[in-house]
Amino acid sequence: MNNSKKHTGEEVRLMKGNEAIAHAAIRSGCDGYFGYPITPQSEIMETLMELEPWNSTGMVVLQVESETASINMVYGAAGCGKKSMTSSSSPGISLMQEGMSYIACAELPCVVVNVMRGGPGLGTIQPSQADYYQSVKGGGHGDYKLITLAPASVQEMADHTVMAFDLAFKYSTPALILADGVIGQMMEKVVLPPFQPRMTEAEIREKCPWATLGKTADRKPNIITSLSLQAEEMETINLRLQKKYREIEKNEVLFEEFSCEDAEYLVIAFGTSARVCQKAVELARAEGIKAGLLRPITLYPFPTDAISSFADKTKGMLTVEMSAGQMVDDVRLAVNGRVPVEFYGRLGGIVPSPDEVLEVLKTKVVKL
Amino acid sequence: MSNFNYICVSILNHNIMAKIKGAIVVNVERCKGCNLCVVACPSKVLALSKEANDKGYNYSHMADPDSCVGCAACAYVCPDACITVYKVKL
């Protein structure tokens, strides 16, 4: 999973995951970043401030007074059809939920980066994956979903930033990059995406006819709002959103398999846990246990069909997360009782070791 | 820097059998407390400090400065290049 791209002829850089996001944001033609510092994602804004993109591409980088302000500035920028983004870590993302619900309802594209840390509450600054529910089930109010990407390497931090903008604009919906403290802070080699120029106003008018860039004589005023007091109207909006989400679920599922072809036991993990589990699967294979790893890359849409297809081929599944067990629910729904699904997780900022995972695999899953 | 002066003085005052004495200076604000250097140190010199840096990480420091042999293993494993190693021949 590390560096799926071939490093041929491209400049390979060594940087932190957070720094890769900042570089990739500028290169993807981002118009505005609004953020508030919080460990372990502060390097995103620090790097942007260092790179001074307002002098090169004209991208705005602003440290605002709070997370609530940052998501609402993103809302405003997105309403104008601009590529806007914000980033934070778990407690800050909780503060943004209201704005994210508004943006989802107003059907605007934006990118939010969550570099998860241990919770609940103010928690720790160590890595965690306990924001899974919040991200894929909708952390704010109402029936909405966020396209959720789970990078597992610094390369993917850069690639997913570009992909998140593309998906957000394709479906006019917010996209979330769900990383954690390990990938944000880890230094790894990365090939940065190619430079894309920022969209010109003419391009925005063409691609985003809903954007509030000033009314022209040939159209009605564009209004960006998430308020409709008529229940019938609100139901129509909800049905339109649901139709869009079904479309996303049909087209945008991404996952990665690691030695799954002949696997009798399937380990399912995303992000940092997937890196740990890849090693655990290698150790298991060395001991003659036919284990495989399935790593969801998109958490919403979840690779339900892929996991379901393994239910009849495998004898047991193990979900490993840095939480008390959140994604395991979706895995159990996918297999629908056809195969036992066990769970292993560490909490509050502790990263499990491959040996721990192997032990659990042997005692809880293989002996079933 | 005062910390570094202290280390240098402690090196010079320490006239023992080891031929090379070492000392490290950690870029405290860059350190994320990943613990790799603590594990890598063959002389068990390093530990994570009880103090936290501006980001909140417990940074690496010399808990037992007298035992440092200047091997630079900590600097080699540091993923963020936070550690500068000084060596003095005695």
Find the CATH topology of chain B.
Answer: Alpha-Beta Plaits
Strand adjacency order, main sheet of chain A: 3-2-4-5-7-6-12
Q: Label the overall shape of chain B.
A: elongated
Strand content of chain B: 25-35%
- Alpha plus pi helix count of chain A: 14
Number of domains of chain B: 1
- How does CATH name the architecture of chain B? 2-Layer Sandwich
Q: pLDDT below 50 for ≥5 consecutive residues: which ranges of chain B?
A: none
- CATH C-level class of the largest domain in chain A is Alpha Beta
The CATH class of chain B turns out to be Alpha Beta
Q: What is the count of structural domains of chain A?
A: 2
Overall, the morphology of chain A is: globular
Description:
By secondary structure, chain A is of the alpha/beta class. Chain A has two domains: 12-201, Thiamin diphosphate (ThDP)-binding fold, Pyr/PP domains (Rossmann fold); 255-366, 3-Layer(aba) Sandwich (Rossmann fold). Helix content of chain A is 43%, strand content 18%. Chain A has 14 helices and 14 strands. The model of chain A has no long low-confidence stretch (mean pLDDT 94). Chain B is an alpha+beta fold and 90 residues long. Helix content of chain B is 24%, strand content 29%. A two-stranded antiparallel sheet of chain B has the order 1-4. Chain B has a two-stranded antiparallel sheet with strand order 2-3. The longest helix of chain B has 12 residues, at 2-13. The chains are: A alpha/beta (368), B alpha+beta (90). The A-B interface holds A 16, 39-40, 42, 125, 185-187 and B 32, 34, 55-57, 79-80.
Q: What's the SSE blueprint?
A:
The complex is a heterodimer of chains A (368) and B (90).
Chain A: E1 12-16, H1 17-27, E2 32-35, H2 42-51, H3 53-56, E3 60-63, H4 67-79, E4 84-88, H5 90-106, E5 110-116, H6 132-136, E6 147-149, H7 154-171, E7 174-180, H8 181-185, E8 187-191, H9 201-207, H10 231-251, E9 255-258, E10 265-268, H11 271-286, E11 291-296, E12 298-300, H12 304-311, E13 316-321, H13 327-335, E14 341-345, H14 354-366
Helix pairs in contact in A: 1-2, 1-7, 4-5, 11-14, 12-13
Chain B: H1 2-13, E1 20-26, H2 36-40, E2 46-52, E3 58-62, H3 73-77, E4 83-89
